[in-house]
Amino acid sequence: MNWQEVCEQRNLQNLPFKIELNKRGQIIMSPAKVYHSAYQGEIEYFLRSLLKQGKTLPECAIFTRDGTKVADVVWVSKKRFSIIKKETECSIAPEICIEVLSSSNTEDEMVEKRKLYFEQKAEEVWICSQEGKMKFYNPFGQIEKSNLVPKFPHKIKI
Length: 158
Description:
Elements: H1 3-8, E1 17-21, E2 27-31, H2 34-50, E3 55-64, E4 67-76, H3 78-84, E5 96-100, H4 107-119, E6 124-128, E7 134-138, E8 141-143
Parallel strand pairs: 5-6
Antiparallel strand pairs: 1-2, 3-4, 4-5, 6-7, 7-8
């Protein structure tokens, strides 16, 4: 199964959880709790407040060598958005890809997702812990703060 087929399946629409595809086309499901959605909303709010250009997108599907991954929140420039806005899944990652951790996520999974997003040309990947603590990464490793949004808070409160 590919992402276009997933999007066209009526029984997979309006599910109460996020789905992704692995490289074999198998569906991976991740149920989301209320805190997860609250962090997504706060992160989007801060991004829109601090970056006046570009777009913030929740639940953004990104094509990777390991199937379709869905970042919880992304920020994408106007230029890159003009490339991806009509795609079913992003052929190039947005500049900032953000994952909000849930209890089912592992460190290895997040390391792999960061690698996959960077391979697709993300400039930064951020991880929000279950307690709202933010970690920022560029392709070379963890950084003290975002280079693209230096005023972004290190802790999100909900």
